[in-house]
Amino acid sequence: LFRLFLKAGGGPGRPGRGELALRAAARGLPVLHVPGRALDALSRGRPHQGVCLEAAPLRFRSLRDAAEPGPGRGDGAGPQPLWLALERIQDPMNLGALLRSAYFLGVDGVVASRDNSCPLTPIVSKASAGAMEIFDVYSTDDLQGFLKAKSAEGWEVVGTVSRPGDVEDVPVISCSEFRWEKPLIVVIGSEGEGLSLETQLQCHRMLAIPPGRALHPGIDSLNVSVATGILLHSICSQKRRHGD
């Protein structure tokens, strides 16, 4: 952390900003009170609530840094581990929302494909409500190889699809029918293109969210972060029942 910028003057958010200033001072961090237009420039016009923090960038971590014997908890204690794999998620707001949901719902780790994916930007961090700052996010140049290796180790790999008719050679089931019985990786594709064929073929099954009505052709899918939240909740709600 380098410097904390706070909006000068009064306003409804000032008491909270005062607490931030005290915390920054306790860390020896310079605190600068600046006009709102300066914060607008620092945040490139995006909402800032009167606060900007200058910090070193966060990078994706290498899978080599993941704890052995593999992602999550592989010691048999407690619920089976659950990881989220992201392929070509390019929108920073969606990526941030995905990380926020994954952290909240108890996902053990996240791995993203390095190519054609959004980096860990300040916009991602804000959209994640800070989850990006405390949740390790890994990346890989070979997502299919990662999935194949975890499958060989006994993990189940499930993909996601909004339109079941688009999938070939991989069984598709409703997320409400899925049962979490072994270490699990849920693979999420881009909002526009979904999962690549190469990644689909690494999946044991595909999960779909059944709609609540007959859908208009132009409104036949969910936002990727919303869909992921629904799928993860459906899966993670089984934790307390696991082993029954």
TrEMBL record:
GO cellular component: mitochondrion
Pfam entry (one): SpoU_methylase
SUPFAM superfamilies found in the cross-reference section: alpha/beta knot (SSF75217), L30e-like (SSF55315)
Keyword Cytoplasm: no
Stretches assigned to the tRNA/rRNA methyltransferase SpoU type domain: 82-233
Domain RNA 2-O ribose methyltransferase substrate binding: 18-60
Entries under Gene3D superfamilies matching the protein: 3.30.1330.30, 3.40.1280.10
GO terms for MF: RNA binding; rRNA (guanine) methyltransferase activity
InterPro entries according to UniProt: Alpha/beta_knot_MTases, MRM1, MRM1_MeTrfase_dom, Ribosomal_eL30-like_sf, SpoU_MeTrfase, SpoU_subst-bd, tRNA_m1G_MTases_N
Swiss-Prot/TrEMBL keywords: Methyltransferase, Mitochondrion, rRNA processing, S-adenosyl-L-methionine, Transferase, Transit peptide
Keyword Mitochondrion recorded: yes
CDD domains: SpoU-like_MRM1
Localization terms from the record: Mitochondrion
Domain of life from the UniProt record: Eukaryota
Family of this protein: Belongs to the class IV-like SAM-binding methyltransferase superfamily. RNA methyltransferase TrmH family.
Protein name: rRNA methyltransferase 1, mitochondrial
Species in which this protein is naturally found: Orthonyx spaldingii
Lineage: Eukaryota, Metazoa, Chordata, Craniata, Vertebrata
Gene that specifies this protein: Mrm1
